[in-house]
Amino acid sequence: MDYNTDPTRNLALELARVTEAAAMAAGRFMGRGDKEGADQAAVNAMRIVLQTIAMKGVIVIGEGEKDNAPMLYNGESVGNGSPPDVDVAVDPIDGTRPLAFGRTNALSTVALAPRGTMFDPGPFVYMNKLAVGPEAKGKINIEASITDNLKAIAKAKNRAVEDLTTIILDRDRHSEMVAEIRRAGARIRQIPDGDVAAALMTAWPDSGVDVLIGIGGTPEGVIAACALRAMGGEIQGKLFARDEEELRRGHDAGYDFDKILTMDDLVSSEDVFFAATGITDGELLKGVRYLGDGVKTDSLVVRGLTGTVRQIIATHNLDKLHHLGLGEQRIRKLV
Predict the structure, then answer these.
(1) Where are the alpha helices (H) located in 193-240, listed in sequence order?
(2) Range from 80-89, 97-106, 310-319 carrying the lowest mean pLDDT
């Protein structure tokens, strides 16, 4: 991509159409208990709109390997084939379980970066993560203890550790981490799913979240890195092997499970674009609202080069979208 002083194309604004379409398709499944159906609808709607964008994209972070979900598969070409050449990371639904059971903070997300700049985790789908917003950028170290990191974050934010709020997935594997956070005195918010949204909260004013800690999805970590890079925050990670066999396979494939994955490792370019649309209500974004003859969406779009963060509230006229082949009737046929 060209770097110059003239205004350049903001692909993040076009990506908002992608996440809006996925959110509108998936939102109908809220509370219906059908994770697979929701994922299928979101993937199909996302693919349709991705193909209309003027780019030569390749899916680096795709959908399906971990959850047996329908695919926007790794290596799939997306876009209309014209420049620029980009890596694409997608998570049609970050939080399929919260969506299926009518809970909060389900999002549709997509990120772009210049070709060859995104980390490819291959089949290794879990990583230990530590993420913060701009105030604590440069102050964290995933190899230090949780207590030391909390002290460093508190100092950077001019607060006591007791004033900090951590966010962590509610998993048995985190029992020791939770115990250490409690001993340190910080507040804890445990969430069932959705650690892309959780990572973004650390950089979102007034979210009330100061740091994300714990083991979650590697693909979600790369997507979060794209967003946090643009928003001025920071995420560090280390690949996490679930057993000795996975560790052996990773070493055989050339992956280093001891290496700290910095922002530059996860996405090495500042020229990143990110978009997210709320599917269910959350601290970041409101969920999809169906209005009879239209749909209302709430989206966040971020551009790395400028650091511009936009919130887009859109009302979609279903009759007019239907005439363009993107209306709800088509979405329903895709389900």
Answers:
(1) 195-201, 218-231
(2) 310-319
Predicted TM-score (pTM) of the model is 0.89
The predicted pLDDT at position 297 comes to 97
| Exposure string over 135-169, b if 16+ CB within 10 A, otherwise e | bbbebbebeeebeebbbbbbebbeeebeebebbbb
**Cα separation values, 223 from 16, 184, 185, 249, 307, Å:** 15, 29, 30, 24, 16
Cα 184 to its chain centre, rounded Å, is 28
Residues 321, 24: Cα–Cα separation, whole Å: 12
Share of the chain above pLDDT 90, in %: 75
Is residue 123 over pLDDT 90?
A: no
How does DSSP assign 81-112, residue by residue? SPSPEEEEEEEEEE-HHHHHTT-S--EEEEEE
- Indicate the burial class of 247 (C-beta count within 10 angstroms; 0-12, 13-18, 19 or more): middle
Pairing label, strands 126-132, 211-217: antiparallel
- Nearest Cα neighbor of 196 from 271, 149, 135, 131 is 131
Per-residue pLDDT reduced to its tens digit, 148-186: 999 999 999 999 999 999 999 999 999 999 999 999 999
**H/E stretch holding 167:** strand 165-169
C-alpha separations of 37 from 42, 72, 175, 198 in Å: 9, 15, 32, 24
Q: What is the four-CA torsion angle of 135, 139, 140, 141, rounded to 10 degrees?
A: 170
State the pLDDT confidence band at 287, using cuts at 50, 70 and 90: very high
CB 126 within 8 A of CB 214: no
For residue 204 the two structure tokens come to 């979102």
Task: Please report, for residues 9, 200, 225, 267, 296, the alpha-carbon distance to residue 228 in angstroms, rounded to integers and kept in the order given.
Answer: 20, 7, 5, 10, 26
The identity of residue 329, as a single letter, is Q
CA-nearest of 281, 333, 301 to 30 is 281
Please answer whether residues 211 and 195 qualify as being in contact, where contact means their C-beta atoms are separated by less than 8 angstroms.
Answer: no
| 322 — pLDDT class (breaks 50, 70, 90) | low
